[in-house]
Design a protein that fits this description.
Layout lengths: L4 H16 L7 H8 L3 H13 L3 E4 L5 E4 L8 H7 L24 H17 L2 H4 L3 H14 L11
Antiparallel strand pairs: 1-2
Helix pairs in contact: 1-3, 1-4
Length: about 160
């Protein structure tokens, strides 16, 4: 499986959003700064996340983004697929044309592994991730470093 920066950054940004949601809407600029992700890249990711119904934007002073659903209802797999990433490790991208237009000998092995990876990521919810002690510790360090509201102890589960 090759997970590009698109999928990794989308999950990271959604975690940041979930961690800080109790403080109100979160700006993309705050996420960009603390997570070291380009603001223009985040704008593209959040457009896809908004289309998928995972986030909602709030305009005006005090605006930003919020989760559109409870963090415990959002799986890592949903975030990854929302930004057009595939959880697929087959060489043919699931088209069954790996070897001269036909499936290769190991096609079903890689298809089954792809499904298991997807199922694994689908079982991990954003609300669970933000409660992990290592995530809480890193978020607290980032908040201190970038002067953000320290909402990590009240993260949305």
């Amino acid at each position: 499986m090759r997970l590009t920066t698109k999928g990794r950054y989308a999950v990271t940004a959604m975690m940041d959003l979930a961690i800080h949601e109790v403080s109100g809407p979160v700006t993309l600029n705050d996420i960009a700064t603390s997570q070291h992700i380009s603001l223009s890249y985040l704008e593209q990711l959040f457009a896809a996340l908004r289309r998928a119904g995972l986030v909602k934007g709030l305009r005006g002073p005090g605006g930003g983004y919020r989760l559109a659903q409870h963090a415990s209802d959002i799986s890592v797999a949903r975030i990854i697929t929302a930004v057009d990433e595939k959880v697929d490790i087959t060489r043919c991208r699931g088209r069954q044309d790996c070897q001269d237009g036909a499936p290769c000998l190991t096609h079903e092995l890689w298809t089954d592994l792809s499904q298991q990876l997807y199922d694994f990521l689908d079982d991990i919810k954003l609300g669970d991730l933000v409660q992990w002690p290592c995530v809480q510790e890193i978020a607290s360090q980032q908040d201190a470093e970038y002067g953000r509201d320290g909402a990590t102890t009240h993260a949305t589960a």
